[in-house]
Write a structure and sequence with these properties.
There is one protein chain. The chain has 23 helices and 18 strands. It is globular, with a radius of gyration of 27 Å. The mean pLDDT is 86. Helix 11 packs across helix 12.
Length: 558
């Protein structure tokens, strides 16, 4: 049993089928042994990395640890040098007397364990963790030690008064402390699951904030003397003109953090005390596409959405404010319907995630490659499914609707507050009501809502006013945010989406064709079984998943 191969073990445990095992072995042979069995299983989508690692732990009889949810001992981390940790993909997590507990992705590699034993002079006890979790922990634990030293050297640099020529010189910009600071800011923001970084210049200091779970949190403050060099560093690597400081500019660059390539968008805007830099962090295609089942939809909404995707031609619209996860939903839908026998073409600004097997087209306004121009060409490319990043103007909306009428499935996004007002907005943009009525399959409105931290949420009974907000007759137990170490004292950990889905049934289509208003469409949709955003948020509050404050923040209307 001890010598049983991992593939046979997984089949015997019922975790993969015999057919899947043969596919994995075939793929491994094609890579000439360059890829490990576990990497191939995860790559082909037969198992998640966590599930495979747990199965491996069971086979090797080694303890599995979830590094994201345990407290890592900083004294233990410091015993293993960073270079050694990165070389072998290991991290020390606990120390007991002369024994060092080390998380590794290969617990049977005795050379690695011997290496650490020689380096630390301690007995090593291996535990198993996923490669992704180890890389993330290495980045997080060692970088926190580096931040203080980087800031010290930056402040020391700021203390040395420099002449005007020196200040502007490229050598100064390339000086190590600034380069390190710029890299550290992006790395720490990514590890904190931030979506944006704001570098804001003021008279006496420069504040750096990051957006986590939709809220801005302060990351650090630095001397205002460093602001100019830091702004120039970001402009330099993102391909902007560093001599031009009077007009807004845009750029982009890529950075590898913990083995994951980030696509980073940079925007600079002149302010009173210098240039404000805002950086948007996008993970590239290396992070797997979400499946529709992972979007946080209720079972009821999931069934509605799935039935919409089965319709062969028409328009499906996803709406919501900026940063509400519309593109993630569209990509998940594409992943579901993009089969080898269909031609899928997208037109986006910008292409946020490269997807294998899908033709993606980037908008370029300067070259005259607008959404409308790209769409016209795409329709001559014999597409089955077309995804339009955003219906920004009448022309794009009109071509999209006409494409749906001529037998294509069109997916797109719009910026509206709820599902019903999307229809009114299309008509308002100049698309004829009868065309909207005949082509529209359905509309999904969505918002991102913060989840309460499971470690510190506090239950209590709801008040009458809160019962009215949730639309329930009597008081029930709901939870409030508190704040603890696990959630950085915010009371919330992670986000989920709430959805409002309107199916364009014959009745709804008749109202649209007759030029009906938002209230009429909403009333017909509710009679049809649509659950509004407020209903979905209310269900989450009642389940203890989110707070009443979040319900008000995401769905309150006057």
């Amino acid at each position: 049993m001890r010598n049983e191969r991992i593939g046979d073990y997984l089949v015997n445990q019922g975790l993969i089928s015999d057919e899947q095992l043969q596919k994995v072995l075939q793929a491994q042979r094609e890579s000439n042994g360059a890829k490990k069995f576990g990497d191939v299983v995860v790559e082909l989508g037969f198992m998640t990395e966590i599930n495979f690692t747990k199965a491996l732990a069971g086979k090797l009889r080694v303890q599995y640890v979830d590094l994201d949810n345990i407290d890592i001992n900083t004294d233990a981390v410091q015993k293993v040098p960073e270079a050694l940790a990165r070389k072998h993909t290991v991290i020390a997590i606990a120390v007991t007397g002369k024994r060092l507990t080390v998380a590794t992705n290969d617990p049977v590699n005795f050379i690695v364990l011997e290496d650490i034993k020689v380096s630390t002079g301690m007995d090593t006890v291996p535990v198993l963790a996923t490669t992704t979790a180890i890389n993330k922990a290495i980045g997080k634990c060692y970088s926190m030690q580096n931040v203080d030293s980087v800031l010290d050297s930056v402040n020391a640099m700021a203390g040395n008064q420099m002449s005007a020529e020196e200040e502007e010189s490229k050598d100064r910009v390339e000086s190590a402390p600034i380069v390190k600071l710029a890299t550290t800011i992006v790395e720490n923001s990514f590890r904190a699951d931030a979506t944006d970084i704001h570098i804001e210049p003021f008279d006496k200091y420069t504040r750096i904030r990051i957006r986590v779970n939709g809220d801005l949190v302060e990351l650090m403050s630095i001397s205002s003397a460093v602001q100019s060099a830091l702004a120039t560093r970001f402009k330099l690597i993102s391909g902007m003109n560093i001599a031009e400081k009077r007009i807004p500019q845009d750029g982009r660059f890529t950075q590898v953090v913990d083995g994951c390539t980030l696509d980073v968008r940079v925007s600079s805007l002149p302010m009173v005390h210098g240039e404000k830099i805002v950086i948007r962090i996008l993970s590239t295609g290396q992070i797997a596409l979400r499946k529709i089942t992972d979007l946080g939809m209720s079972d009821y909404n999931y069934q509605l959405f799935e039935s919409m995707l089965r319709v062969p031609h028409g328009v499906i619209l996803v709406t919501g404010p900026t940063g509400s996860g519309k593109t993630t939903t569209l990509y998940a839908a594409l992943g579901e319907i993009a089969k080898p026998h269909v031609n899928v073409v997208t037109v986006e600004d910008p292409v946020e995630k490269s997807i294998d097997g899908i033709n993606q087209c980037q908008v370029n306004q300067k070259a005259g490659m607008t959404f409308a121009a790209a769409l016209r060409s795409i329709l001559r490319q014999d597409p089955d499914i077309v995804m339009i990043g955003e219906m920004r103007d009448t022309e794009t909306a009109d071509i999209g609707i006409r494409a749906a009428i001529t037998g294509h499935l069109v997916l797109s996004t719009l910026h509206t507050n709820d599902a019903a007002s999307t229809v009114v907005r299309l008509v308002d943009m100049g698309v004829a009501p009868y065309m909207v009525a005949t082509s529209l399959i359905g509309v999904i409105a969505q918002r991102l809502i913060k989840r309460l931290c499971p470690s510190c949420k506090q239950p209590r009974m709801s008040t009458e006013e809160e019962n009215d907000l949730m639309g329930i007759p009597e008081s029930i137990e709901i939870c409030d945010p508190v704040g603890c170490v696990n959630c950085n004292n915010t009371g919330y950990k992670g986000r989920t989406a709430i959805h409002e889905i309107i199916h364009c049934t014959a009745k709804v289509s008749a109202i649209i064709a007759a030029g009906g208003g938002k209230e009429e469409i909403e009333k017909a949709a509710r009679a049809n079984g649509t659950k509004l955003l407020r209903d979905n948020a209310s269900a989450l509050v009642q389940a203890g998943e989110t707070s009443i404050d979040e319900l008000v923040r995401t769905t309150f209307t006057v």
